[in-house]
Amino acid sequence: MLRFVCILGLFSATFAAAVPKPCCAKHQLTADLQQITGSYTNGTPSTVETLMKIQYDYDTLMIKLELSDGTTIIQDFNQTKQYTTSGKSCRTDDIQSDIQLQPPCVPSNAVYRGRNTIGDDVTYDVDTWFVAGTPWGNITVSVMAHDCTPVMQGTSSNANNVVSQTTIFYHNVQFTTLAATTFQVPQPCP
Ligand SMILES: *[C@@H]1O[C@H](CO)[C@@H](O)[C@H](O)[C@H]1NC(C)=O
Ligand SMILES: *[C@@H]1O[C@H](CO)[C@@H](O)[C@H](O)[C@H]1NC(C)=O
Prior knowledge:
Layout: H1 2-18, E1 28-41, E2 44-57, E3 62-67, E4 72-76, E5 81-86, E6 89-94, E7 111-118, E8 124-134, E9 137-144, E10 150-159, E11 162-174
Antiparallel strand pairs: 1-2, 1-11, 2-3, 3-4, 4-5, 5-6, 7-8, 8-9, 9-10, 10-11
The structure holds 2-acetamido-2-deoxy-beta-D-glucopyranose (2 copies).
């Protein structure tokens, strides 16, 4: 009986050690994103694939998205303004004040889903986390264990008769220092 208890204790200790803390990546990041959204709107299915380059700076609260169709979106979460340029046209919109730039972190309330590897010749550990009930829906995010580099993020939502699943793959991630000019808005931008 005593031995049985000891084995159980050993197991639970091993399990506790295997659960990492939610991590944070560096505050500046560039990446090529492949975003695929599948949705049902009142029963009608659709899929949309978007390729874009993201430049993200959490210190200055700026994001720049360069879409493959030539559209560029700069979001300034400090001034809560969004600037969309396409060709020679530029448009300014307000960002809703309840939308905030997300920190480069796995949220502290995320539930750990376990560790896997990617790669074969060279392998990296990847941790997966789940967060239910965010303003965007339920989020599943996978990050590299050693430095929190995002690998994949999935969002499922079901609201206003739209059921959707969005998956974002993070390619060519680099933690690089971004010049302030990166987020310069073309003038004029009415
Ligand atoms: C936000 O903008 C104000 C006014 O321009 C500036 O003083 C402040 O440093 C900015 N905050 C950040 C985080 O960039
Ligand atoms: C979100 O997660 C909760 C808890 O796991 C689940 O009950 C709910 O069905 C999920 N919603 C969607 C849209 O996936």
